[in-house]
């Protein structure tokens, strides 16, 4: 045999071996996302009912955050930010109707493919990705599976088509056909098909988003007479400004008995979360049984929250309250260091992509604005100042649109011909204008483009009723948060495109702005 051929073939074989090693040595990634799940309805935050027992225990044995925030309380902006690591002001996706306008240099799926990952979506998309971007694609929506095949899937789709904005009776869909159960079935089946390559799967539940439907036994688990009462009322909504008032009027037009129905809808919402918790348990315990848990990094989170009866409202839409902006976030599995309590850091949905880059040993792409959480998740040192605050954005710009009689709910599209609003909460009125919030410690500041502000001490006023903005007693704190908000706004100016000549663009490997 020709020596050169032998040496050449040996190099090739060695290269193949290294390539396979590089592929299989990287951890699998499982992102478990719910739609519209607020952060505080869980045992680890003191909620008195067993609504998330499995994820609570997962958090206690691994790591979790109690100051994790969405980038914007709307599905598409949030999901586009998760995959690009960029805030809505940079992605250009500031509403659910601007997905095609998404702007970025390189996203998570691209980086994963460059690192030889097999990728899958099982569940809700509502972002810019499509089936051609993933190796496996099984999409679900709030109206059932996009391409129903089985009798159970078709029955679910038919039920949702006939459903109004909310369901007050026990759902006729049995547990095995509820979307979270079917999504976990498919996710497990796809994971079982993976052999040599590391995998990424986005397990994306359309629930507990409306329509609020849940079957037994979950329906009775959270009966209205068992629930702790809400701490706010419709009167509090009316005090919080015109956008809340508009949303209240719209919800009343769509749901004439909303005040009476809210306790049952809250119970349904909580029952949906418990059903999801049981399905998350089934998925993660399956990973453990197959010996994959320690080889897989898992994150459980939501895209944004829900009023769940707060201010006499349901769903989302107006303002930047904690009920809408703060999200659950639990990390588990591969190299995650068990933390004694919630990690004391303000983090964002935009931080997922850069964290995964660090995990798999790749650099964070230019244009990414989120930061890697990997040092803190693995018990390493990190700059405390970097995570001392976080911002959330809201609004598609222009002037605020008041409740103008010239534009009716029907004309705008918020109400259908049947006067039923299935997705009324994101509309011209609630989403117009521009607002920003900054959370720092126990304090929170919200500003809009008119210079109107809100200042809350969340420790003393968790439901954000007592607006301290302009109160001379708190002027120093107000100025401190205003300074922090301006700094964030400057930091989040989109660096793309970078200068084409001479200038050197400096970045920290973790995308940190501050050092130790």
TrEMBL record:
One of its GO terms (cellular component) is cytoplasm. Residues 27-359 form the Sulfatase N-terminal domain. InterPro entries: Alkaline_phosphatase_core_sf, Sulfatase_N. Pfam families: Sulfatase. GO terms for molecular function: iduronate-2-sulfatase activity; metal ion binding. The conversion to 3-oxoalanine (also known as C-formylglycine, FGly), of a serine or cysteine residue in prokaryotes and of a cysteine residue in eukaryotes, is critical for catalytic activity. Keywords: Hydrolase, Metal-binding. This is DUF229 domain-containing protein. It comes from Bacteroides intestinalis.
């Amino acid at each position: 045999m020709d020596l050169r051929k032998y040496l050449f073939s040996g190099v090739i074989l060695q290269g193949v071996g290294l390539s396979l090693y590089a592929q299989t040595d990287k951890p699998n990634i499982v992102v478990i996302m719910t739609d519209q799940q607020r952060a505080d309805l869980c045992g680890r935050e003191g909620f008195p009912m067993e609504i998330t027992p499995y994820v609570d225990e997962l958090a206690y044995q691994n790591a979790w955050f109690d100051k994790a925030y969405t980038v914007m309380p709307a599905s598409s902006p949030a999901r586009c930010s998760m995959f690009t690591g960029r805030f809505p002001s940079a992605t250009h996706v500031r509403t659910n109707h601007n997905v095609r306008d998404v702007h970025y240099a390189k996203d998570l799926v691209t980086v994963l493919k460059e690192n030889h990952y097999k990728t899958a979506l099982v569940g809700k998309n509502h972002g810019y990705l499509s089936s051609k971007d993933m190796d496996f694609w099984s999409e679900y929506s709030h109206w059932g599976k996009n391409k129903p095949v089985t009798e159970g899937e078709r029955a679910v789709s038919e039920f949702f088509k006939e459903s109004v904005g909310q369901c007050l009776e026990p759902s006729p869909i049995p547990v095995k056909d509820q979307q979270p159960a079917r999504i976990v079935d498919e996710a497990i089946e796809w994971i079982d098909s993976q052999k040599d390559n590391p995998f990424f799967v986005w397990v994306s539940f359309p629930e507990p988003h409306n329509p609020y439907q849940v079957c037994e036994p979950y329906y009775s688990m959270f009966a209205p007479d068992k629930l702790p009462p809400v701490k706010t009322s419709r009167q509090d909504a009316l005090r919080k400004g015109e956008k809340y008032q508009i949303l209240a009027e719209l919800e009343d037009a769509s749901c004439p008995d909303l005040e009476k129905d809210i306790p049952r809808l809250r119970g349904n919402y909580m029952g949906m979360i418990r059903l999801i918790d049981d399905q998350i348990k089934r998925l993660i315990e399956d990973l453990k049984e197959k010996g994959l848990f320690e080889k897989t990094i898992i994150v459980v989170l939501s895209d944004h929250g829900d009023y769940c009866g707060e201010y006499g409202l349901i769903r989302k839409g107006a303002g930047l309250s904690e009920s809408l902006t703060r999200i659950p976030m639990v990390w588990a599995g591969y190299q995650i260091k068990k933390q004694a309590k919630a990690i004391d850091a303000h983090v964002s949905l935009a931080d997922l992509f850069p964290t995964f880059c660090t995990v798999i040993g790749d650099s964070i792409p230019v244009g990414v604005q989120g930061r890697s959480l990997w040092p803190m998740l693995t018990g390493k040192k990190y700059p405390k100042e970097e995570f001392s605050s976080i911002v959330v954005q809201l609004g598609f710009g222009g002037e605020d649109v008041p409740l103008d009689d010239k534009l009716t709910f029907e004309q705008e599209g918020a109400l259908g011909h049947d006067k039923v609003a299935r997705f009324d909460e994101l509309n011209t009125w609630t989403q117009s204008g521009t607002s920003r919030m900054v959370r720092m410690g126990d304090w929170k500041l919200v500003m809009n483009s008119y210079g109107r502000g809100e200042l809350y001490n969340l420790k003393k006023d968790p439901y954000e009723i007592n607006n301290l903005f302009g109160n001379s007693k708190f002027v120093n704190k107000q100025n401190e948060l205003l300074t922090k908000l301006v700094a964030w706004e400057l930091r989040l100016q989109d660096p793309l495109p970078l200068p084409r000549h001479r200038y050197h663009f400096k970045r920290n490997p973790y995308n940190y702005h501050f050092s130790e």
